[in-house]
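Subject: design request, 289 residues
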C-alpha cells in the first residue's frame, strides 16, 4: 500500500482504485491524461466505506486518502493534529507526493469541511471540486433538529420508520444517543447491503472524531471570505432523503462558491453511490470530465 509523510512526520496511507501508472506500480502518480481524483472520506473513518464510489474508478483513477489515525495511516503523536484545519497540510502533502500542480478533489460528508478549508487555503491547487452529501460546518451552516425531523418524515411509509424516528427525535431533543437505530435514514434502501455498509462506515478512532471539530477547526467567516474568489467549478451533490446533509443546507452551501452546481439525487440518502450507482457515477464523472 502506498504511503507518504505528512509535514509533522506522520506516515499516511492511500488507496488507488482504477488504472495504474505506466510502470504498473499503481502508486497514484499521474500518467499523461490519467490524472487521479483525490478523495477524502468523512468520519473521520476508515476510507474503505467509500469503496470505488459505485464504479467511478472506471472513469477516473481514484486516490483515496486514509486520514491520520484511520485505516492504514499512523496515529499521530500530537492528537490536536486531528483538527480539521490542521489536516489541510496532509492533503497538500499528498498533492506534492503525487507530483501534481493541481488536483481534482472529491470529498464526502465531514470530509467536505476539510476540502472546503483546503480550497480556501490553496485555491490555485484545485482543478475541480466535488462535495458529496457534504458537511457544512466549515461554512457556518447549521442544521436544526426540526429540519432533520421534517426530512425524516418523508420516510413515514417505511416499515422501520416508527422505531428509527423515535430514536431520531430523542437524539435531536438531546435525550438520546442510539445512533445505530437511526441508520435507516442514511440510506435510500434499508437492505442487507446498507446494513453491512453502516457497520463499515462507523468511525473507530474516538480521539480523531473528538478533535476533528475542536475549537478553531472551521473559521467560517474567514473561509467564506476566501472562497468568494474561488475560481474552480464546484459540484455539490445532495441526497433527497439525507437527514445528515439535507438538500436545503447543501443548497445554502452552494451559495458560498462563485461557480457551483447543485444536484439532488432522487431517492438517495447519505451514500448516493450505494443507492443508485449508475446515476451517481453519471453525474460525478460528467462533472469531472
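Subject: RE: design request

Done. Sequence follows.
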Amino acid at each position: 500500500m502506498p504511503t507518504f509523510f505528512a509535514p509533522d512526520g506522520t506516515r499516511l496511507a492511500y488507496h488507488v482504485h482504477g488504472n495504474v501508472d505506466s510502470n504498473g506500480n499503481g502508486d497514484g502518480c499521474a500518467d499523461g491524461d490519467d490524472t487521479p481524483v483525490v478523495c477524502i472520506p468523512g468520519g473521520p473513518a476508515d476510507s474503505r466505506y467509500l469503496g470505488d464510489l459505485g464504479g467511478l474508478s472506471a472513469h477516473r483513477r481514484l486516490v483515496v486518502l486514509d486520514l491520520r489515525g484511520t485505516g492504514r495511516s499512523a496515529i499521530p503523536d500530537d492528537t490536536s493534529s486531528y483538527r480539521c484545519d490542521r489536516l489541510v497540510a496532509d492533503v497538500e502533502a499528498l498533492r506534492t507526493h503525487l507530483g501534481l500542480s493541481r488536483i481534482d478533489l472529491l470529498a464526502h460528508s465531514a470530509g467536505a469541511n476539510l476540502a472546503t478549508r483546503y480550497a480556501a487555503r490553496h485555491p490555485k491547487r484545485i482543478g475541480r471540486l466535488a462535495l458529496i452529501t457534504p458537511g457544512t460546518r466549515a461554512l457556518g451552516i447549521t442544521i436544526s433538529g426540526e429540519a432533520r425531523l421534517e426530512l425524516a418524515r418523508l420516510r413515514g411509509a417505511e416499515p422501520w420508520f416508527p422505531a428509527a424516528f423515535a430514536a431520531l427525535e430523542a437524539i435531536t431533543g438531546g435525550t438520546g444517543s442510539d445512533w445505530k437505530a437511526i441508520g435507516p435514514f442514511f440510506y435510500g434502501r434499508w437492505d442487507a447491503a446498507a446494513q453491512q455498509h453502516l457497520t463499515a462506515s462507523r468511525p473507530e478512532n474516538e480521539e480523531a472524531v473528538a478533535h476533528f471539530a475542536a475549537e478553531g477547526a472551521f473559521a467560517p467567516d474567514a473561509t467564506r471570505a476566501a472562497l468568494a474568489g474561488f475560481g474552480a467549478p464546484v459540484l455539490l451533490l445532495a441526497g433527497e432523503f439525507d437527514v445528515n446533509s439535507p438538500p436545503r443546507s447543501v443548497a445554502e452551501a452552494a451559495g458560498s462558491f462563485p461557480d457551483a452546481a447543485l444536484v439532488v439525487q432522487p431517492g438517495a440518502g447519505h451514500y448516493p453511490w450505494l443507492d443508485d450507482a449508475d446515476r451517481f457515477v453519471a453525474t460525478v464523472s460528467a462533472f469531472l470530465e
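Residues 68 and 74 are 6 Å apart (CA to CA).
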